[in-house]
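Quick log. Single chain, no ligands specified.
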Amino acid sequence: MRENYGILLVDDEPAYRAIVSALLRSLPIDIDHAADRAAALRSLAVRRYDLILVDIELGRDDGREVAAVLRGADCPILAFTGLHPAEGERYFTDHGFDGWIAKPFEGRTLVAAVCRWLGDGVPSTEAPAEGGQLSALLGADGAASMIGRLHANLAEAVAQIDGGADARPIGHRMGGLAGTLGFPTLSAAWLSLQDDRAAWPTVRALTIEAIARAQGSAPD
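-> predicted structure:
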C-alpha cells in the first residue's frame, strides 16, 4: 500500500473540508481544498491527485465546467453535490464526471466510495470508530452511560434545528461536547454549523448514523 493518496476537494463550503477530513483521517490520504476553479488549477499545478471531488454549485463557477478543465489531471473526477437529478448518476457521467457522491451523505457511504475509487491499494473500511478512550477513563459502563447522554443531547439538538432553531449556538455547544468526549467527526460536523448552515443536511445525516450505529440499528 502507498504511504498516502491525494484527494482534491473542490467545494466552496468550508464545512465539507472539516467533515471529509475527519471521516477519512484513518486512511493514508492527504486532502487539499479548493473553493473555485482558479484555486483548483493552482493545486493541480503543484501536485498529482488520485481522486478529485467537485461540487456543482461553486459560487460564480459551475462545477460541470470546472470538471471539464480539470480533465488533464488523469484521475477520476466525481460530482460531490446536493443536486439530485432525475437521471441519477447518469446525469453526471453524461456531463463528464466519472461518478457521483451525493450530499447529504453518511460517513460509511463516503468512506466506501473513496476506497472504491482509489482502488485496491486502499483497504475498504467503515467510518472510523470514535469515543474509544472513554472506556479506558470511565470503564465500559461509565463510557456507555456518557455516550448515551451525548446521543440523547444530539437527538434533541437535531429536533431543535429541524424545528427552526438557530443552528450556530447549537453547533458550537454540540461540537464542543462531541470533541471533548472523543468524537472528532461529529465535533467537526457540528462546529461547522457556526459558519455554514448549508451543511446541515450532512451534519444531520452523520448524527443520525452515529446514533443508529450505537443503538445497533440502521439509520432511517
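Strands lie at 5-10, 29-34, 51-54, 57-58, 61-62, 77-81, 99-102.
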